Amino acid sequence: MTSIGGTQHGPEGDGDQGEEPGARIQELGGARTNLRRATREIASPLLTPGFRLLAPFFEFLEPLELLNACPYGCPLHPMDEQQAATVTPRSEDRAPDQARSFRIVPDIAPHAHGSVLVSTGNTQVICAVCLEETVPRWMKEQNVPGGWITAEYSMLPYSTLTRRPRDISKGKLDGRAVEIQRLIGRSLRAAIDLDLLGQRTLWVDCDVLQADGGTRTAAISGATVATALAFAKLIAAGTLEKWPLRSLVAAVSVGMVDGKVYVDLDYEEDKKATVDLNLVMSHRGEFIEIQGTGEEATFSGTDLSGMLAAGQRAIAVIIGHQRRVLHDLAPELPEIN
Question: Distance between CA 326 and CA 240 in Å, rounded?
């Protein structure tokens, strides 16, 4: 193996690295001249007429010296004059119109007719469904045919960052819990043929295991799956003769945060939201309930339309998850069109 001009030639050497030093110096000199010429062409239009008379002498200036000589500055440094926009990251690196991950663990309560643990992001809710062979007293007194659906909602003491006392310890039901359980009941009654239940009550218990925003919407989406699983078991046992579930139901929260529409808000986003909206829909795209309010703020018709559109898209995704879960857990279920 030999060495010529500081370059080794042999089995591992590159033959094109052995050119003469003088030729290499000439090549570098030519490249510098071309760089000066290109820089002068960029800078010349920026010069004043009088200053442009000196342009021939710029051939001997270094490129950076030439650019610094421009009296109005150089357009090649725009980033020095702009600040990057502040972007608040979302949980799970989501886009503003993207819902959190949706997961279902079935049979979380073995003694219930149907049960699931539903998770939307870090929010976790146990949804259990039981069928009782009776109806509320008011239905008996008024001779109302068919059955009924009653939902109960509660947050377990350890579901929040600080312990939350149970309602029984306070001697009264929490007003928020009453509102939410009524919402869950209304949402399911809109999707179920009560006459096909007979003189029975379907109890839907939703207990929040971990709260990170959107507990009521997660409860509705999870309770729908738990109810479908309960009906499958009751039909298989001969308790019910016909399939009562007429449509799938899902819900999602939508809000305005920093002037933008955000879907499926977690707790930190919910605290900053100026508008809070909960949307419940069927799989056919029909509205079941819309709860919207400004948090010390107002919102326009355009804002409302944007929130509804974003919520509809997110609910369509959640219903797709529900369909896949039900198909995997109970493939014998009838198709809900």
Answer: 19
Instruction: Examine residue 218 and state whether it is found in any structural domain, yes or no.
Output: yes
For 139-192, how does the pLDDT look when each residue is reduced to its tens digit (9 = 90+)?
999 999 999 999 999 999 999 999 998 887 777 778 999 999 999 999 999 999
- Contacts of residues 233-238 at CB distance under 8 Å and 24 or more positions apart, as own/partner, are 233/113, 233/114, 234/113, 234/131
Average pLDDT over every residue of 125-144: 96
Yes or no: say if 281 and 290 are a contact pair by the CB < 8 Å rule: no
Residue 311 included in any domain: yes
Same domain, 202 and 250: yes
Can you point out the beta strands (E) in 7-93? 7-9
* Single-letter code of the amino acid located at 337: N
Please give the pLDDT value at position 10: 41
C-alpha span between 106 and 94 (Å, rounded): 26
Alpha-carbon 166 to chain mean position? 31
Q: Does a structural domain hold residue 10?
A: no
Banded model confidence at residue 77, pLDDT cuts 50, 70, 90: very low
Say if residue 247 is exposed, middle or buried (CB neighbours under 10 Å; 0-12, 13-18, 19+). middle
Structural domain for 288, as ranges: 98-329
133 CA to centre of own chain:
40
